[in-house]
Write a structure and sequence with these properties.
Largest sheet: 7 strands, parallel
CATH topology: Rossmann fold
Strand content: 15-25%
Number of domains: 1
Number of strands: 7
Strand order of the largest sheet: 4-3-2-1-5-6-7
Oligomer: single chain
Distance between the termini: 32 Å
Order of helices and strands: EHEHEEHEHEHEHH
Radius of gyration: 16 Å
CATH architecture: 3-Layer(aba) Sandwich
CATH class: Alpha Beta
Length: about 200
């Protein structure tokens, strides 16, 4: 299968959480991406929301790239049958591989790992090392406390003018593709991957 031009990196939990809406959002996102011909880049696991979104893309005939470090192959039950599977030595290699293969980023609900990945990709955008869309799926208001924290950081002077958090928020996973394409259409500055790689 040919790798699609557009590929969304999805950060999400290796658990499904305790609300059915979270898994529903993951499945809806995968179905919407597959229908739009947008590929998935994700952490390679078959459990939790990771597995839900990947299987949904695959069932819709879409392209899935899984990237997983070798020490998580068993723990996160590496998903067989993906279009492309990459096993890395370290988490750092995993994250850089996901970054390099993605044209945008989406965060579904998740735990500390999801938060860490989101914070890192937002920091790189804040420092103008990439200008790719970053979208939060605020299912069941999961991310609302974080959004409020960003607002508090700004009001308390820790996010200065010119360093705003570059982030789009949608309530429904079905709206991610539209938000992604809109952000691409209005974003002119697109620093190449090489800029970021040289500075890490």
């Amino acid at each position: 299968m040919t790798t699609p031009q557009h590929r969304l990196c999805v950060y999400c939990g290796s658990a499904t959480g305790n609300r059915p809406a979270y898994a529903g959002a993951a499945r809806a996102l995968g179905a919407t991406m597959a229908k739009a011909g947008i590929g998935l880049v994700y952490g390679g696991g078959g459990v939790g929301l990771m597995g839900e979104v990947a299987r949904s893309v695959l069932s819709g005939g879409g392209h899935v790239t899984g990237i997983i470090p070798d020490f998580l192959v068993s723990k996160e039950r590496m998903l067989d049958g993906v279009s492309e599977l990459i096993v890395t030595r370290t988490m750092h290699e995993r994250k850089m591989g996901m970054f390099e293969r993605s044209t945008g980023f989406v965060a579904l609900p998740g735990g500390i790992g999801t938060l860490e990945e989101l914070a890192e990709i937002l920091t790189w955008a804040q420092l103008q090392q990439h200008a790719r869309p970053v979208i939060l799926v605020n299912s069941e208001n999961f991310w609302s406390p974080l959004i409020r924290m960003f607002e508090d950081m700004k009001s308390n002077g820790f996010i200065r003018p010119g360093f705003e958090v570059k982030l789009d928020v949608v309530d429904r996973a079905e709206d991610v593709v539209e938000a992604y394409l809109h952000r691409l259409s209005v974003t002119k500055d697109k620093p190449p991957v090489a800029i970021l790689k040289d500075k890490l």
